[in-house]
Amino acid sequence: MSLLQDTPAAVSPSIGEDPSLLIVDDDKPFLTRLARAMDSRGFKVETAESVSEGLETISNRPPAYAVIDMRLGDGNGLDVISELKARRPDARGIILTGYGNIVTAVTAVKLGAFDYLAKPADADEIYSALMATRHDKAELPENPMSADRVRWEHIQRIYELCGRNVSETARRLNMHRRTLQRILAKRAPR
């Protein structure tokens, strides 16, 4: 379901007594649509377009729920999630990002995020993440990626981020350039 299709849903009893929700995102159209969609699901929504606005809202009225973009114009959404957990330890915050990777996901969870979603996430996914309990998380996959495949994908991601520059990728991975060239020439492991 798209954020544009924010059909009213019944107020969930799992929202609890405090339905306050803070959404922090610098993408104004997305922020507006998500706020409208969450309002129709029973939340009392406040919005912020920057880290500083988010921190100010949290210091005045720490919300029970939060949806925070990772990269904002004036800083990092992890600062907002960290402050939210310091002010209100029982709050449920999720991080949204277009730059998903394992390291930032782990960091977000360590700083207090309940979940981590990659953009584009729709209102239903976000609502489900906010209302989930820890045991609602996905089960361990039957056939997880092998360590070789995870390593290969990490190398490919760094290679792409470096603009397909082998020398720069090798330097960042602390690897010999020729070794990296051999890895890149091979097929992806299973």
Structure description:
The protein is of the alpha/beta class. It folds into two domains: 124 residues, Rossmann fold, CATH 3.40.50; 39 residues, Arc Repressor Mutant, subunit A. The protein is built from eight helices and seven strands, in the order βαβαβββαβαβαααα. The strands form two sheets. A five-stranded parallel sheet has the order 2-1-3-6-7, with helices on both faces. A two-stranded antiparallel sheet has the order 4-5. Strand 6, helix 4 and strand 7 form a beta-alpha-beta unit. It starts with 19 loop residues before the first strand and ends in a 5-residue tail after the last helix.
In short:
This protein has 190 residues and is an alpha/beta fold.
Task: Draw up the topology in text.
Layout: E1 20-24, H1 28-40, E2 44-48, H2 51-60, E3 65-69, E4 71-72, E5 75-76, H3 77-87, E6 92-97, H4 102-110, E7 113-118, H5 123-131, H6 147-161, H7 166-172, H8 177-185
Parallel strand pairs: 1-2, 1-3, 3-6, 6-7
Antiparallel strand pairs: 4-5
Provide key terms for this protein.
single chain, 190 residues, alpha/beta, Rossmann fold, Arc Repressor Mutant, subunit A, 2 domains, five-stranded parallel β-sheet, two-stranded antiparallel sheet, 8 helices, 7 strands, DNA binding, ActR/PrrA/RegA family redox response regulator transcription factor
